[in-house]
Design goal:
By secondary structure, the protein is an alpha+beta fold. The protein folds into two domains: about 80 residues; about 35 residues. The chain contains three helices and five strands. Strands 1, 2, 3, 4 and 5 form a five-stranded antiparallel beta sheet that branches. Strand 2 and strand 3 form a beta hairpin. The radius of gyration is 22 Å and the shape is elongated. The termini are far apart.
Length: about 120
């Protein structure tokens, strides 16, 4: 099992609901993939504790160990808590579409109005 130490105890806010975490393996034999996986576990724990949501990975970076004394691989992630912007937008569009369907079924809007709005929401 790879042991690593985080470079920051808490995720660092980097703006617009985004956070960053970094870590370093304690041994030369660690991998950046394992560091990133461990950082995502920490990010998920943070997001669950603070917001009751899952962490969504925005980006990850890693640098394998170079030869030399004290060299070990490092990694960092950027993440947000909750749905990604794309997922949130899709969810909102589906909610709107369901509301439009209810209006159509009740006779409040015409089929033509429904079809026009549906095309806009689905990007057709």
């Amino acid at each position: 099992m790879l042991s690593f130490s985080a470079l920051a105890d808490e995720p660092t806010p980097i703006g617009e609901g985004k956070y960053m975490l970094g870590g370093r393996a304690r041994t030369f034999f660690g991998t950046t993939a394992k560091i990133v996986a461990n950082l995502m576990e920490d990010a998920n724990e943070f997001c669950q504790d603070k917001f009751g949501k899952e962490a969504v990975l925005i980006s990850s970076r890693g640098e394998e160990a170079r030869m030399g004394v004290g060299a070990s691989p490092t990694g960092s992630i950027e993440f947000r808590c909750g749905q990604s912007e794309e997922q949130s937008s899709t969810s909102q569009n589906l909610d709107t579409l369901m509301k439009l369907k209810t209006l159509l079924d009740s006779g409040a809007i015409t089929q033509e109005e429904y079809d026009t709005q549906k095309k806009k929401l689905l990007g057709e």
